[in-house]
Specification:
The structure is a homodimer of 416-residue chains.
Chain A (H helix, E strand, L loop, with lengths): L1 H24 L6 E7 L3 H14 L3 E7 L1 H10 L10 H12 L3 E6 L11 H23 L5 E5 L3 H7 L5 H15 L7 H22 L3 E6 L2 E7 L9 E3 L5 E3 L7 E3 L1 E11 L4 E3 L2 E11 L2 E9 L1 H8 L8 E6 L5 H4 L7 H4 L5 E5 L14 H6 L8 E5 L6 E5 L5 E6 L2 E2 L3
Parallel strand pairs in A: 1-2, 1-3, 3-4
Antiparallel strand pairs in A: 5-6, 5-17, 6-10, 7-8, 9-14, 10-12, 11-12, 12-13, 14-15, 15-16, 17-18, 18-19
Chain lengths: 416, 416
């Protein structure tokens, strides 16, 4: 009995690694892979690495983050040192992407990891890191290469998600939810993803055909009108990189998303799920927008951390993404709050401050950067999503001629 | 009893990390540290990182090697992919060193880790990696920055060194030998190192005053005359980098070493201890030199791996280092064979094929590369030491006027 449970777990973990490689990243023959992961995700990294080699990768280079080392830095490093970032590493990564290396990240959130530490030091480090990373992340936001983010469980995260279970059972329960959300519980997960990608493609085509000038979220303390960028394109599911490789950026993913016009967002909005940010849990975010700019913002919990995010740069007070997710999505239905954006953003409609994606423009692969900016693309070293959808929220589309159409009611699609 | 043993261990481990940081690397205020280590050395990395921050480092970036991932590559990657190296990463590291980042490595040998795998694939990977790393390693060989290599134990290494002990005791025994060899068993290890560095400085001064044209190793199947480079300088113990920082490159270190003239080495030599190389154990190496070039070479065990090393490039068949270590050194006296060059090279006189060090020239900080090459400096992407000293071996110095002086008998210093 025990043995069969553990062999089922091994099978599903291997399925998840396969999904990450064969659905997510899809490295082509001879391609290098630059992989980052928290040290807690070592086992998952090893499985992904093995499948990536079988899939044709020439070299997988894992870069590990270690929260323990970060805690030492915040506690013991000199006050003057927190604006330093590993610029040399990101310069190297950029050189790798320039030579068509693929980018893989394993995410394994450790909520509250940095609770009690100096948030100013953490915020300064995060800001410096985001600024230095831009030279590399531009290859991602510009859609130059295939990339993927996939999850791994860890005990601290499991405890947060299942606080009432003993540690071992909590970890097993979190893995189980991850397997369900990522379709790794299916016998043939790659086929299941093919069907899901087809459904997301159909939904994108419907929205693109309508070419809305803006969309409005309203209900339960929210009334937010998000103008869409000129020449926007809804994205979601599979993408084709400029390097010609088809990939799924996020595992799991249930969203279709678009580029807001960074000067044309107005109204106010309440978050509907907690946001895990820089090791803190940010709750009940209220933001008010005028002509694209956040003019008022407050979170009930970890407000300092949230304000640090908004103060990253000019673009971090404007939207770079708006996304639609049905309330009945696979992840929403699980009823689980993951405290991890990769999951929670796929349980509800959401917005993100910061950098927008080129693939959210019809001509994103060829248009000049300045042209995209003139059409409403947002520029920032940050990109952070939080959730604004629930069964209390409705979404309307405002057409180019000013007419209004219902898109979602209680965050369910109005059209099949 | 148990508690006090474990608190003594914790104290000594912390001492070792202190030695690595305050004797070895000595990061200065605001300096970045690029740290590499096998994943098995995580605990040691965390301690070193903590002390490095306390010492003034602005940011420590650990890069982990994972043997398990390497095994996956050798087993599963496409045949055409083994000449690929992480050139992007080394380009980034070079940019870091150009901006005065310090370089730290934790070594934790896992002997025989790759036994049974395709040695051609491993050799091709190692050669490609060495070639790509040159852009970064030149900062080390040129003495531009402060750098350090320090050790950490691991269970597989402990089993190799103490095959007759149960695993836990073997690991404790290896740590104990590491603590002794690195002076981490002293109450004030930093003071102990200060005294040791003074002694090495005295020995260097003696040898430099003699300015030998060559040195000869003879006895027990060996008769090797190593011509020294023109304008050579003996090095060992503390060094001052071009960046002005004083550091100890190796922890432990018992050697004084010099640059051979790469065209003036003649004779034959037997190795006296096993060499751990690319996960294999190479034993009983015989090499024959003519005018600096290895014209005949054979190892009784892992000969393939050794031949791959010699075939790295033109310079990997010529010497880049010759070193003197008394047979009565702290590490030799332990009687332990570590199967790790960092230790074993400090138990016996040794030679290295491959790249020579600029600090082994009197004007190494300022002389042009071509000038050093004309005076006998060796160029290679490799640098691998093996041991040739024992109590059966004598060393003579041949003066510039041709006269001969005894330097060591049975590998003990003739002069106090």
């Amino acid at each position: 009995m025990k043995k069969s449970a553990s062999s089922l777990f091994a099978k599903r973990l291997d399925n998840l690694a396969k999904v990450a490689v064969y659905v997510g990243l899809r490295p082509v023959l001879g391609q290098q892979v630059i992989l980052s992961a928290p040290i807690e995700a070592l086992d998952m990294v090893r499985l992904v690495t093995k499948h990536a080699y079988e899939a044709g990768a020439s070299l997988v280079t894992p870069l590990y983050d270690d929260g323990t080392a970060t805690i030492s830095r915040v506690k013991f490093a000199a006050e003057g040192s927190f604006d330093t970032a590993p610029d040399w590493l990101f310069k190297g990564m950029a050189a790798g992407f320039e030579n068509n290396a693929a980018r893989m990240a394993i995410t394994s959130e450790i909520p509250g990891q940095f609770a009690g530490l100096d948030t100013t030091r953490i915020g300064r480090s995060a800001k410096a890191r985001a600024g230095a990373y831009k030279i590399a992340s531009e290859y991602i936001t510009a859609g130059a290469i295939n990339w993927n983010i996939s999850p791994a469980a860890n005990p601290a995260w499991a405890k947060q998600v299942f606080p009432d279970l003993p540690p071992k059972q909590a970890l097993a329960a979190l893995w189980n939810e991850i397997f369900k959300a990522t379709r790794a519980d299916e016998d043939d997960p790659v086929s299941a993803w093919n069907a899901h990608n087809a459904e997301l493609a159909r939904r994108k085509a419907q929205l693109n055909a309508r070419n809305y000038q803006s969309i409005r979220f309203f209900g339960a303390g929210t009334d937010l009108t998000v103008g869409l960028a000129e020449g926007h394109a809804w994205a979601g599911g599979e993408t084709v990189g400029k390097n010609g490789v088809t990939y799924n950026a996020n595992i799991p993913t249930e969203e279709v998303f678009c580029a807001p016009h960074n000067l044309r967002v107005n109204g106010y909005v309440l978050s509907t799920r907690p946001l895990s940010l820089q090791g803190q849990v940010v709750e009940n975010i209220y933001t008010k927008f005028e002509n694209g700019l956040i003019v008022d913002a407050k979170a009930d919990k970890s407000n300092d951390t949230f304000q640090h995010l908004l103060n990253t740069d000019e673009g971090s007070r404007r939207l770079g993404e708006v996304a639609l997710v049905p309330h009945s999505s696979r992840i929403s239905k699980s009823g689980v709050l993951f405290y991890n954006t990769l999951f929670d953003e796929n349980a509800a409609c959401h917005i993100a401050v910061g950098q927008s994606y080129n693939k959210c423009f019809v001509d994103g692969k060829t248009a000049a950067k300045d042209d995209l900016i003139a059409r409403g693309a947002n520029q920032s070293n940050a990109h952070v999503d939080w959730m604004i959808g629930s069964n209390q929220i409705n979404v309307d589309g405002i057409c180019q001629d000013g007419s209004i159409e219902p898109i979602m009611r209680g965050c369910e699609w109005v059209n099949a």
